[in-house]
Amino acid sequence: MKTNEFVENAKLVFENTAQGVNRKVLAYCDNLMCVENHLEKGGQAPLHSHPHTQITYVVEGVFEFTVGDRKYTIRKGDTLLKQDGVKHGCVCLEKGILLDIFTPMREDFIKK
């Protein structure tokens, strides 16, 4: 599975994944996926794990992340690496945008 080589963000529709959390799946192929997440203050991604390695880049905002047994407060320009199988989650402290990169791609994000 894959998207076109060029994905025009303005034409994509947000999917509401939780209260205060909206997602757009951007470009992807079998081995890689890019996802944009917009969170309102107080929006949360509850603790979870998955068989994908994930890098999260903070485009804007402030977030408290739990990764394994550690907590991090991250801001614009910060990056987190979450290995496959490690429990992680976040709370949005200031409205913001996260860019997530997954390997392999998250099939569950595109199956409707």
Key attributes of the depicted protein:
8 strands, 8-stranded antiparallel sheet, 112 residues, mainly beta, Jelly Rolls
Model description:
This protein is mostly beta strands. The protein has a single domain (23-109), classed as Jelly Rolls (Sandwich). Helix content is 0%, strand content 60%. It has no helices and 8 strands. The protein has strands spanning 15-18, 21-29, 32-39, 44-48, 53-67, 70-75, 79-82, 88-103. Strands 1, 2, 3, 4, 5, 6, 7 and 8 form an 8-stranded antiparallel β-sheet that branches. A hairpin with a 2-residue loop joins β2 (21-29) and β3. The protein is globular and about 35 Å long. It starts with 14 loop residues before the first strand and ends in a 9-residue tail after the last strand. The mean pLDDT is 96.
Summarize the structure.
0% of the residues lie in helices and 60% in strands. With 112 residues, the chain is mainly β.
